Amino acid sequence: MSVTERKKVLVVEDNELNMKLFCDLLGAFGYEAVQSRDGLKTLEIAREHKPALIIMDINLPEVSGLDLTRWIKDDDDLADIPVMAVTAFAMRSDEERVREAGCEAYMSKPIQMMPFLNQVQKLTEREPVQ
Amino acid sequence: MFTDQILSINDKTGGQELRVSPMLASVLWLGLSLAVAIAGLFTGVPATVVGATLALVSLPSVVHLIIGTRAAREAHDIWIVFAWIMVGLICVLMTGGASSPLVVMLALGPLHALSLGRFRLGIEASIFAGIGYLSIAAISFSGAALPSLENAGALIGLGALVSVLQVGVFAASAGGVINERRGKNQEIDRWVATLTDTPVLVVSLDPRRKVRSWVGDLRLLPGMSANDIGHASMADFFEAPYDAIRGIEENDVPELKIETQENVHVDLRATRDGYRLVLTQYKPRAVKPAEPVAAIEATPEPEVLPAEPDAPRLSDEAVWIASLGHELRNMLNPVSGYSDLILSERAGPVTEPYKGFARSIKQGAEHLGLLVDDLMTAAKGRSGRLRLEPEDLDVVMEAEDALDLIRWQAEESGMTLKLDAPQESVPVYADRKAMRQIFLNLLSNAVKYSPPQGQVSLTVTTDDAFATVAVSDEGDGISEAELARLGEPFFQGENARHRPGTGLGLSIVMMLSEALGGDVHFESAEGEGTTARVRLPLKVEDAEADEGEGEAEAEA
């Protein structure tokens, strides 16, 4: 598979180790991970890279991932990019809030690798892994 | 005031509380009383006098050691302090009145109160002792005959000995030789302060409203240095400290009079041994940066809006635990994710022993995840934020599912699981997650405490109004005393000490069963295993037939 065929996935995550995990996971399964550690710069980065999917941590330092998602969904250029929320909050009301904000999918940490990859694949409309 | 100074030093040594542990104080006191009694016998004080005095002064300590409650401790402190004063007064009276050298013994009561860390009691004791002394002086001056004792000399010697011992205890307490670390509270403060991203400053104040210790982010109070805060008292934080304390009950804590950073939430609450002032900086809601092109160079400062109305009050202990849970889960993610990645062999082949290691890491992470979930459920229950979504369920089916989930764990140690349930369905209207957690917690407890090769059985029965699910194990059982404490958060019985667990499992079961309209009972005898019985209300077929309890059974 050539590099140009790899689909880009933008990972918005402020925790280094988690960022590394998502990048390694995505890299190992044939995606190209683009990183954003800074909530406020995410829109800029998304515009630049046009990712096939955004993986969004909800609990970010400056701005909540939910607000970020709302801005993305309000933006004509970016609204079509699916957003998968990933959060370590495991409260039932959170899933509702995540859906309301416009996220297409929701996963709670700790993630299970296979469901996570299946979801990524579904949202980026890739051919099945292997 | 002299004593005040001593206590200030005492309170702030190393930021931890230094004072005699109540239990130790009781034991010390008993030892002291005994020593004096024995000495008294040897020096020829009549045995009846010694016995009576010993009974009088040791009773509260004995009660305290047996009952051990806070109320008993309070009463015990007061009793001992006033017993000291009475002993002092009697000694003075018997050895020549106002001019007796044993006047020094009158200081023992107040000193004892101070060594227990009870400043107010000390003052009260001083006043009481003063009044007593004045009365004796008055009797002396009026020329009335004072009783005399033949062995006054021995009594003086004894009094001096007791005084020295008591001053020694006080000095040991003040110097921090005997100290009690306030375990959990402070530990949790520290965790929260270091583990969460939220800037938190927790200031612990003693009952006299002076700062005992602090932990967290001092930058929340720009005007205060570490030294300032170490010597501060409630009055340094609030314009009217008494209003602030009154505000605790009404949940209306006034603003701080000193400068804080922006968006700082102030919370004050009463604790077991003083007050706790908690400052948390909540996250302001950021505003979307200006339109893209303009944003390239000039990233606007996020404008600060008022906090979201439903922003959690981070000072709430339960919310703290939840945010702790959040951090733990966040860090479990790489642990479990990387184990998965290793096992997937996407980065090259992994040989067997290493695969096994990765599986163990994964198992550990999964177990830790369960514990965190327990912790968070308990926290939600405590803060009243538990939300149930009832639906039509079949108890038997849910029980079967729960058994399936626990099966691998049981079979690993050769246990058998037995289900004894009616053929037909047992309908309830309940929250699935809550019910599953009840069953799982009880089953995993039963598996945990069963001997290898033992049997864990789950029995479903019904009566007029309730479905009863009984989970029995063949473990060592639980003593009566421990049985009474089951369900207390963090309580773990004697034989649970060396087993993994949070001590929250049963308190969650109790909380959830009550939330579902049922209850839990435990039956156990040592050596005979334990049975937990959960009752859940059966679904009433007709919405209006709330009182027709027989209906659910009619199906059976």
Concise account of the structure shown:
The complex is a heterodimer of chains A (130) and B (556). In chain A, 41% of the residues lie in helices and 20% in strands.
Please tally the β strands of chain A and state the result.
Answer: 5
| Widest beta sheet: strand line-up of chain A | 2-1-3-4-5
- Average pLDDT number of chain A: 85
Could you estimate the helical fraction of the residues of chain B in percent? 40-55%
Largest sheet of chain A: 5 strands, parallel
Could you give a short account of the major beta sheet of chain B? Answer: 5 strands, mixed
Measured distance between first and last alpha carbons of chain A: 12 Å
How large is the share of residues in beta strands of chain A? 15-25%
Strand order of the largest sheet of chain B: 6-8-9-11-10
User: Runs of chain A with pLDDT <50, length 5+?
Assistant: 126-130
Shape descriptor of chain B: elongated
- Broad shape of chain A: globular
- Poorly predicted regions of chain B are 1-19, 175-197, 292-315, 543-556
What class do helices, strands and sheet pairing of chain B give?
alpha+beta
The biggest chain-chain interface is:
A-B, 35 and 37 residues
Task: Please report the number of helical segments of chain B.
Answer: 19
What does this structure look like?
The complex is a heterodimer of chains A (130) and B (556). Chain A is built from five helices and five strands; from the N terminus they run βαβαβαβαβα. Chain A is of the alpha/beta class and 130 residues long. The two termini of chain A are 12 Å apart. In chain B, strand 1 (200-205) and strand 2 form a beta hairpin. The longest helix of chain B is centred in the middle third of the chain and has 31 residues, at 352-382. Residues 1-19, 175-197, 292-315 and 543-556 of chain B have low confidence and may be disordered. Classes of the chains: A alpha/beta (130), B alpha+beta (556). The interface between A and B is large, with 35 and 37 residues.
